Amino acid sequence: MAHALEVRCPLLSPRVVELALSIPGRIKLARGVSKGLLRQVANRYLPPEVRALPKRGFHIPIDRWFRHELRRVFEEQVLDDTSDLAWLDSDAVQHLWSQHLSGAYEHGSTLWAVWCLKLWLESLRTTSPTQINPEELTRVG
After folding, report:
1. Could you report the per-residue pLDDT of 40-85, keeping only the tens digit for each?
2. Residue 58 in contact with residue 66, Cβ under 8 Å?
3. What are the residue ranges of helices labelled H in the chain?
4. C-beta contacts of 64-70 below 8 A and 24+ residues apart
5. Given its phi and psi angles, is residue 10 left (phi above 0), alpha (psi -120 to 50 degrees) or beta?
6. How would you class 70 by CB atoms within 10 Å of its CB: exposed for 0-12, middle for 13-18, buried for 19 or more?
C-alpha cells in the first residue's frame, strides 16, 4: 500500500471505519479467514463469477507511456529544464532516459520518481514560504 494505488474509498468512509474498529478481532478473523465479514456482505451483492476472481494488481503502463505519450512532455519538463534538479546528476538521468527509450532497460518507475521530485520541488519554489507548513513536508503515511 505504501507504493501503489489503493482504490478502497468506500471502505474509508468514517462510518465504515468506526464500525470496523468496533468489531472484536476474534470476529474479524473467524476460523482464520481474513475479511470474513466483508466476504459475507459481498456474497449478498456480488455474483459468484465476480467473487471468484483472483486478487490482481493495478498497473499503469508507465514504461510505454514514457516511450510514447509522455515522451515529449518528460523531455520538456525534466530533461530540458533541470533547474530544480541542479544537485541531481543530469548526465545520469539522461543515461537512464536513453536506456529506457532504447528498450535496453525499463526505468519507468525511476524516471517517474525523478519527474515527481522535480514537480514537487518546483511547487515549493512557486509557493510562498508562508504557505508551506514544515509539518506537511515531514509527515509520513
Report:
1. 888 999 999 998 898 877 788 999 999 999 999 999 999 988 777 7
2. no
3. 14-22, 25-28, 36-45, 48-51, 62-67, 71-74, 90-102, 108-125, 134-138
4. 65/108, 66/100, 66/101, 66/108, 66/111, 66/112, 67/100, 67/101, 67/103
5. alpha
6. middle
On the question of pLDDT at 140 being above 70, the answer is no
Which residue is listed with cell 464500525? 19
Lowest pLDDT segment from 27-36, 37-46, 102-111, 122-131? 122-131
CA distances, 96 to each of 50, 63, 80 (Å)? 41, 12, 15
Q: Which amino acid is at 133?
A: N
Cell of 48: 459468484
